[in-house]
Structure formats: structure tokens, C-alpha cells
Write a structure and sequence with these properties.
The complex is a heterodimer of chains A (307) and B (230). Chain A is α+β, with helices and mostly antiparallel strands and 307 residues long. Helices cover 21% and strands 30% of the residues of chain A. Classes of the chains: A alpha+beta (307), B alpha+beta (230).
Chain lengths: 307, 230
């Protein structure tokens, strides 16, 4: 027999590889913090003459008690307690630049402005999350033991410390997924008594897995992020639980210029096109002005446990 | 007559050869760059309230003061473009933190700073006691080196020892954990590990308190009792 048609004999009719028509997203921590009462967003910097703001902390609304005073005695003045924390804003940006030819043959439309604008929105949210995650490791109060898995006991200790320090709820927990997994394991394997019959514990075990918002458990709203830093030279992770007042953040953007190819995304991010015609290049640039800083230290507890 | 000659006398020359290494397209060899997650540069800092038991000692539990514009009031200098952290560090000090200079290391340390950047990763800053690996996101800790550094901080007087009230608080917390672990071990034999750990932690803290001596808490006569009719 001869002239059988084989794959190698029709070389002019086949390709070594073709595009699949579908694509996968690479793994990333692409989550946005929820609009939570523990998050404190301060007004922007536009037209205020500085890149740095002082946020006053004022001891009113029950901070000082009425003093027992004699019937006709002169009441002494009460000192008004105050303090402050500073927050500074800085430029956060990224740009994707592609050639005309790359955009021409772009099979998935990933170089189109709409897709890049969506990417910019998700990246902004992830950046804000990253800023918060990089602050929760630095509270002076800590719970947990270095080199030991996070446990329900650690979480309860942290909540107790916040309540003792008069922090108002609801609390938000930002922890590394490894820490969350260790607490979940403790709830599944060792939880007894009240925890065993707690609906939150059941929901925690059954919840959809992955990063991001995990739901409420033990009165804390939980969020996991891989941006949570290491501690003790990489042996541990240092997440944290905090209430309103622990961390302030700011999100700002420069005003959109109607003469330029730029738009505002949610009033938080400037998304614009930059064309270099001589080089046949088009860039899409995302810019936001962000800041986050610790304010009242005792409104948070760092949870330092095994990595 | 050579060995290659056939009986008929016709020479049969051998084919020349040269070394061959398979060169496969797109196979550039394993990556020499680590895949550790990026993070901002930082300085270590210690706080009088943050202590831990590590390596059989009571040692500081340092935090990382991140040096990134927009974080904790760090800014970019408008002239030089370098990071400006004066306000940020001053606020940290106001809150009780002590910043540890990056180049103040125990004698005999080969490195000039406790920070380093892995080759090819300008976006990663690690401690010299954190080991990273080519092609991997794993970080392994040099626990002995880290404990050695923290011990040196206390022994060399760089950091004040843990205050007595902090030690007593740590002791109370460890005792509570031990009590609960002892309860658990009755139904879970594996919890014996927790019991042993807490017993060891308590021994370390008690040793530290004993070494320090029974320092009296600061006392002063309560003010405003002049008018109390006893």
C-alpha cells in the first residue's frame, strides 16, 4: 500500500498549535475589601494644598466621665484628650503598551481598552487590599504563638483584647489563607461546646473555598489575602483583626480632562490612552492616588502564627 | 595490515563523530529567579509590649515598618525622588516602637545589612535569615540565625529586656493555654504536644522573671484622699 494520508503528509494543511478559543486566568489575589464599617476612608486631597493629612483623634462622646462633685464645690476643668495620625497620598500606576500589529492580531481581545479598564479596576481593589494587609502586622497587641498553627483560641484571645481596649465592633479580620486554614481545621477537628453547635462554624467549614471574603465567624468578618506579610524571618504570618479607627485610607484621582482620551473609573482611578504614532504603539495607563496608615494602635490586634 | 582491513584487503574507514547535546527549542533550563511574592522594603522595629518565647528565651517580636510611598505616611521626596520617612518613623516612635538600624548586626555577621534583594527581583526585599529558592515561592527560615540576632539585640543592650508586667501577662496567658491543653489531652492524646510546649514556655518565662528579681511595681500615694474621713 502507498499514499496513505497521514498527519505528517498533510503538513501544508495543519499547524503545530492553534489557539484554543478559551483562555484561563493566571492565579492571583484578585479581591476587593468589602464596604465594611471597620474601614475608615478619609476625604481626598484635591485642592487642599498638601499631600499629607493629619487625622485628629478626639476624646469626646463618653471618653471622660462626669466626676463626683460636692454640692456647692467648683467643678474643675476636664482636659480634652486628643491625638492624631498622619496619612500621605502617593501615586500608584501601571501601563500596558502594545504595538498596532499586536492589537491587530489579538485573538482574545485582551488588548482592547474595555478589558484593560476592567483589569485596572480589579488591580486598584487588590492594591487597596495590599495596603491594608501590609499594616495589620504592626499592632502592638498580638495573639498567637510563633511556629504554632493559628487556632480558635488565638481568635478568641484577639477578640478579647479588642473588647478590653474598648474597640467598637464590628471587627474585620485580614489574615493569610494559611492562618484561616489553620483556624478552620481547629474548628473542624477540635471545636467543642458552643463552637460545635455554632452556625457560623458550620458555615465556615462549608463555605466556598478560595481567597477573599469568607463570611462572619465568632462575630468577626473575615477576609483572606496572600498580601499578608511574613513575621519572624519567614517562620510565621502576621495577619490582624481590627475595628474602626485602626487603619485609615484614602483613594483619590486627578480630575478628568475632557480634551484628552481619559476617563474616570468609579471616581477613584484615571484610565487613559497614550498614543505614540511614530512608533505605532498605544499605551493604556491607570493612575490612582492612594494612601493608608495606622491610626489608633489599640483598635487592632496582630495575629502572628505559623506560616 | 591494520585491524580495519577486511580479509579481502579493502579498507573500511570509520565514520567521524563529534559530541552532541540535545538543544530543544524553548528549553532554556530551570529559572534562576525566585518566585517569592513581591513586597515593599522595610525596617525592623520592636515594641515594649511585643515579646515572644523563641529558642528557649524571651525575645522581642519585631514588626516590619514598610517603606513604600503612601503607606504609613511615607512620601516621595519631591526633589530627589527618594523615600521620605521622617514623619512615618516619628509616629512609630510616638507609639512606642524602636526602629532597628538595618546595618547594626552582631559581630561576625558577613552581611552589611539585615535586608537583601534576591538576584533578578527588584520588587522583593527579604531578611538575611529568610532563604528563597530559584523557581519557587517558598521561603525557609533560618531559625537559629534569627534567634541569634534577637538574642544579641537584648544581650548587647540594643533593646531593653521585656518589662516585668509584660512577662507576668505572658505567664498568665501561657498558664491559661496550658490549662486548656491539659483539658484537651484527656480526649485527644495528640494535644500532649501543646501541653509540653506550654510547659516549656512557662519554664522560660518563669526563669526570666526569677532572673530579673521581684521588681516592685511603681507605687505612689493616691492623690486626692486628703478629704477622706477614715
Amino acid at each position: 500500500m502507498a499514499d496513505e494520508i497521514t498527519f505528517s503528509s498533510i503538513a501544508d494543511q495543519v499547524e503545530s498549535e492553534i489557539l484554543s478559543g478559551e483562555f484561563l486566568m493566571l492565579q492571583a489575589d484578585r479581591n476587593a475589601l468589602p464596604a465594611h464599617p471597620a474601614l475608615f476612608r478619609v476625604p481626598g486631597f484635591r485642592g487642599r494644598g498638601s499631600t499629607s493629612q493629619k487625622i485628629p483623634q478626639i476624646g469626646l462622646m463618653g471618653y471622660d466621665l462626669l466626676a463626683s462633685t460636692a454640692e456647692t464645690g467648683t467643678v474643675a476643668n476636664t482636659a480634652l484628650t486628643d491625638a492624631s495620625g498622619t496619612i500621605a497620598v502617593a501615586r500608584y500606576a501601571k501601563a500596558y503598551e502594545s504595538s498596532d500589529l499586536a492589537r491587530l492580531v489579538d485573538a482574545y481581545g485582551v488588548l482592547q481598552p474595555g478589558v484593560l479598564a476592567m483589569d485596572a479596576t480589579v488591580s486598584l481593589a487588590s492594591t487597596i487590599l495590599s495596603l491594608h494587609a501590609n499594616l495589620v502586622d504592626n499592632f502592638a497587641t498580638t495573639a498567637g504563638t510563633s511556629g504554632v498553627d493559628a487556632s480558635l483560641e488565638n481568635v478568641l484571645d484577639a477578640i478579647t483584647a479588642l473588647e478590653v481596649s474598648k474597640t467598637e465592633g464590628p471587627f474585620l479580620g485580614i489574615v493569610h489563607p494559611q492562618q484561616w486554614a489553620d483556624v478552620r481545621k481547629d474548628a473542624a477537628l477540635n471545636g467543642g461546646g458552643a463552637i460545635q453547635f455554632n452556625a457560623g462554624a458550620q458555615a465556615m467549614l462549608d463555605a466556598m473555598k478560595g481567597l477573599g471574603f469568607k463570611g462572619s465567624f465568632l462575630g468577626v468578618d473575615w477576609f483572606t489575602s496572600t498580601h499578608v506579610p511574613t513575621a519572624n524571618a519567614g517562620a510565621d504570618r502576621a495577619g490582624g483583626i481590627f475595628g474602626r479607627g485602626a487603619i485609615a485610607h484614602v483613594i483619590d484621582e486627578v480630575p478628568v480632562d475632557p480634551d484628552l482620551p481619559q476617563i474616570s473609573v468609579n471616581g477613584q482611578l484615571l484610565f487613559e490612552k497614550s498614543r505614540t504614532a511614530r512608533d505605532a504603539l498605544t499605551a493604556y495607563i491607570s493612575t490612582a492616588y492612594l494612601g493608608a496608615s495606622e491610626q489608633i494602635d489599640t483598635c487592632g490586634v496582630s495575629l502572628i502564627t505559623d506560616a | 595490515m591494520s585491524a580495519f582491513d577486511h580479509a579481502a584487503g579493502t579498507p573500511s574507514p570509520t565514520v567521524g563523530r563529534k559530541e552532541y547535546s540535545p538543544l530543544l527549542a524553548g528549553m532554556g533550563g530551570p529559572s534562576r529567579v525566585t518566585k517569592v511574592a513581591p513586597g515593599p522594603p522595610f525596617l525592623l522595629k520592636v515594641h515594649p509590649s511585643r515579646w515572644q518565647v523563641l529558642g528557649g528565651r524571651v525575645l522581642p517580636c519585631p514588626g516590619k515598618h514598610k517603606l513604600q510611598a503612601g503607606l504609613n505616611a511615607v512620601e516621595l521626596d519631591r526633589h530627589s525622588g527618594r523615600l521620605k520617612a521622617g514623619t512615618s518613623l516619628a509616629e512609630a516612635k510616638e507609639r512606642g516602637w524602636q526602629i532597628l538600624p538595618h546595618d547594626d548586626l552582631p559581630p561576625g555577621t558577613d552581611e552589611g545589612s539585615y535586608l537583601y534583594r534576591p538576584d533578578g527581583r527588584g520588587d522583593v526585599v527579604l531578611l538575611i535569615w529568610e532563604r528563597c529558592f530559584a523557581g519557587s515561592a517558598t521561603i525557609r527560615s533560618d531559625a537559629d540565625g534569627w534567634v541569634g540576632y534577637l538574642s544579641w539585640l537584648v544581650d548587647a543592650g540594643r533593646v531593653e529586656p521585656a518589662p516585668l508586667y509584660v512577662l507576668e501577662g505572658m505567664l498568665d496567658a501561657a498558664q491559661e493555654r496550658l490549662d486548656r491543653a491539659q483539658d484537651r489531652v484527656r480526649t485527644q492524646p495528640s494535644a500532649q504536644v501543646d501541653v509540653d510546649r506550654e510547659v516549656a514556655i512557662i519554664a522560660v518565662i518563669e526563669g526570666e522573671i526569677e532572673q530579673r528579681g521581684a521588681a516592685e511595681p511603681v507605687r505612689q500615694a493616691p492623690a486626692g484622699l486628703d478629704g477622706v474621713d477614715l
